[in-house]
């Protein structure tokens, strides 16, 4: 169905960018109408990370390192993951509604509009907790960076790491939410599982886990490139050659997400079928 | 009285059936809870390989993590969204017209949804037992008191969840409130890290809150970190929190219900 109704010419990057920007700005405007909501959500985002910070601080008061990783290095690991996951809430939180939209047939009229469906869906919402998450994630990252004695020289690598982490995370969340095109349900369970397992496991050194987990997170679902690989390179736990993998993983994830979403739209048959 | 219990039972049953209709939720809960448990096991096995820390060795930590999995699955798997959504979308107005006590009805529904997590708990615990072979309770009495402590988690979880949901009378969304509650609960219950690792002032803060009774209390009883008198004292505190929050929720609801808005009205 989507094939029949899709625009014949692919939309240009400038047009897509303009649609995306307008939709996000409209969402920001609507946020300002509910200030109490904003503060509750942003505080919740901060609180999660304050407690992660507290967990690491309490833990490292008792142990000198975890699998060879010291306190400030672990803070960088947590901080970079938090920035990435918080950014998904700010940049593409609407993809979490894919399942609901498929179930209710709400993709229908988005297919008829002259803009990519994934962009329209991604901009239907902003997760306000993302403001708190990104802000505190950056604080954790900077505090860890300074504590680990990294200095200013590797800042360009840090900026590249942040850009790639945000890209990979947004792409993976989109990809896993697109599963709802086939496995129908109101909740994006697969994306939720991805985030939850990441927030449990990927804020710890990969050396703690069996080889199967390491291979899976490096080469199958490359979540290790969100935070573990860049931080390991920056802190000397991995050689600099690994850094090449980060933008490659970002590119692969974006292509995979767009491909899976497009396949999902092809199989979309509106509601009631 | 009998009629009241019949209504409660009906709410429990309906809520349980509603949850059982979505069988993928079981798998999701098992993956999430089980995944978190495996990550904790990997972390603590590494940390405790050199010996005990803050009174926990690898044996006791395995039992501790499994108890945390049980209480975490019970609490985080319950249907808090259902109650919150009814306040947010205005359906609460219909609930208020029904000849049942609002709080009691929501408690029955909540307990029904908690019961629906029991199969996940059973499968997870059997799997964990086979994989990690944790030690049993320090004594038969400790075992019985641990079970009692886990049963008291039901009213305690409802109290905390319901009180936090009532905030929805003032906000337009529930997600942030839920995260705030779960973050506080995860940390101060000892699910993330046992309270014994915290500095004494932070332990005092934690024990002044209801959260430790979700994990620290049943684990302390199970592992024999407290004697029978101490265990009974902890159970009394846990029960007192349950009663206190029930009464507190009534007071908050009386005030909150004046704020109800239905479709902007």
From TrEMBL, chain A:
Q: Membrane-spanning regions, if any?
A: 38-63, 75-96, 134-153, 159-183, 203-228, 240-261
What the entry lists under InterPro entries is as follows:
ABC-2_transporter-like (IPR010390)
Does the keyword section mention Transmembrane helix?
yes
Which key words tag this protein in UniProt? Answer: Membrane, Transmembrane, Transmembrane helix
Q: Source organism's superkingdom?
A: Bacteria
Which Pfam families does this UniProt record tie to the protein? ABC2_membrane_6
* Official protein name in the record: ABC transporter permease
Say which species the protein is native to: Glycomyces paridis
Automatic annotation (TrEMBL), chain B:
Matching entries from Pfam families are given as: ABC2_membrane_6 (PF06182)
- Domain of life per record: Bacteria
Q: Is Membrane among this UniProt entry's keywords?
A: yes
Mind telling me which InterPro entries this protein's record contains? ABC-2_transporter-like
Q: Which ranges does the record mark as transmembrane?
A: 26-44, 64-83, 110-132, 144-171, 183-209, 229-249
- Keywords in alphabetical order, please: Membrane, Transmembrane, Transmembrane helix
Membrane found in the keyword field: yes
Its recorded name reads Antibiotic ABC transporter permease
Q: Which organism is it from?
A: Glycomyces paridis
């Amino acid at each position: 169905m989507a094939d029949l109704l899709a625009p014949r010419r692919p939309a240009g990057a400038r047009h897509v960018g303009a649609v995306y920007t307008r939709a996000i700005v409209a969402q920001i405007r609507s946020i300002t109408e509910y200030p109490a909501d904003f503060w509750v959500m942003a505080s919740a985002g901060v609180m999660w990370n304050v407690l992660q910070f507290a967990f690491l601080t309490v833990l490292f008061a008792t142990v000198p390192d975890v699998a060879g990783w010291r306190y400030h290095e672990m803070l960088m690991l947590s901080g970079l993951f938090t920035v990435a996951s918080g950014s998904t809430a700010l940049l593409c939180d609407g993809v979490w509604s894919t399942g609901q939209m498929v179930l209710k047939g709400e993709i229908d009229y988005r297919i008829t509009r002259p803009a990519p469906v994934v962009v329209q869906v991604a901009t239907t919402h902003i997760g306000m907790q993302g403001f708190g998450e990104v802000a505190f994630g950056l604080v954790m990252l900077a505090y860890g960076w300074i504590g680990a004695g990294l200095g200013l020289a590797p800042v360009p690598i840090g900026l590249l790491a942040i850009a790639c982490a945000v890209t990979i995370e947004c792409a993976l969340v989109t990809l896993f939410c697109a599963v709802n095109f086939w496995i129908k349900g109101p909740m994006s369970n697969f994306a939720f599982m991805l985030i939850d397992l990441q927030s449990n496991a990927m804020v710890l050194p990969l050396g703690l886990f069996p080889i199967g987990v390491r291979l899976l997170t490096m080469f199958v679902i490359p979540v290790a490139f969100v935070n573990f690989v860049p931080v390991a390179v920056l802190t000397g736990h991995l050689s600099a050659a690994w850094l090449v993998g980060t933008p490659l993983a970002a590119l692969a994830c974006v292509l995979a997400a767009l491909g899976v979403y497009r396949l999902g739209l092809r199989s979309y048959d509106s509601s009631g079928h | 009285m009998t009629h009241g219990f019949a209504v409660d039972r009906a709410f429990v049953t309906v809520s349980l059936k509603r949850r059982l209709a979505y069988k993928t939720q079981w798998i999701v809960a098992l993956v999430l809870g089980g995944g978190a448990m495996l990550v904790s096991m990997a972390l603590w096995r590494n940390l405790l390989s050199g010996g005990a820390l803050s009174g926990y060795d690898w044996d006791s930590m395995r039992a501790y993590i499994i108890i945390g999995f049980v209480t975490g699955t019970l609490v985080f798997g319950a249907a808090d969204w259902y109650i919150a959504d009814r306040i947010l979308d205005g359906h609460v107005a219909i609930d208020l017209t029904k000849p049942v006590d609002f709080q009691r009805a929501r408690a029955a529904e909540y307990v029904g949804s908690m019961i629906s997590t029991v199969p996940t708990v059973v499968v997870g615990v059997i799997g964990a037992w086979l994989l990690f072979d944790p030690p049993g309770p320090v004594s038969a009495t400790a075992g019985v008191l641990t079970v009692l402590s886990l049963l008291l988690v039901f009213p305690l979880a409802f109290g905390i969840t319901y009180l936090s949901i009532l905030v929805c009378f003032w906000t337009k969304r529930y997600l942030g409130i839920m995260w705030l509650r779960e973050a506080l609960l995860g940390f101060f219950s000892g699910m993330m890290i046992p309270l014994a690792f915290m500095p004494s002032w932070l332990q005092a803060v934690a024990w002044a809150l209801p959260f430790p009774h979700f994990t620290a209390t049943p684990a302390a009883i199970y592992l024999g970190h407290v004697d029978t008198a101490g265990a009974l004292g902890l159970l009394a505190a846990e029960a007192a929190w349950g009663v206190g929050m029930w009464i507190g929720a009534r007071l908050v609801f009386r005030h909150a219900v004046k704020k109800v808005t239905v479709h902007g009205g």
